[in-house]
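Format notes (please read before filing issues)

Several people have asked whether sequences and structure tokens are stored in separate files. They are not. Every record keeps both together, in the order shown below: the sequence lines, then the token lines. Line labels are part of the format and must not be stripped during preprocessing.
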Amino acid sequence: MDRQQIIEAVRSFDGALAMTPQPGSEFPELSWGDAYFFFAPDGRMPERTQPFGTIITKDYPDDASSDLTATGRFRVNIHVGRERAAALVPSDPEPTASDVFRRHPLYGDAGWVCVIEPGERTADTVLDLLREAHDTARRRAERRGR
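Then the structure lines:
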């Protein structure tokens, strides 16, 4: 599964916004080429809400453990909650392994999981988890009266 297929799947979720900063946009250069998924039925990026999922296409200064420097590699990050993360990833695999779930290298303790290059083993579950994360974000927004 490639990153564009994931982005298009998320865009099909009711009220989902997939931000994909591009060169020359108002977003920081470091974010260009990545994707950020929000529940935003009005189509505007929320100001005080974290995304429910992301796709990153490069190593960040404080997050290089996935070795995303190779052309075409990307990592999907999904907030699933602490209990779900523990069930999905009882022990972390090799940090650069593709098509396996692992805890997010920085936010794993906060209930985030990730997959480098989702494939045959993980692609369906990645999409299911993104849909669940979207539904959770929608319920949270509804409770807040958004």
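For reference, the curators noted about this record: The radius of gyration is 15 Å. Residues 3-143 form a domain with the Aspartate Aminotransferase, domain 1 fold (CATH 3.90.1150.30).
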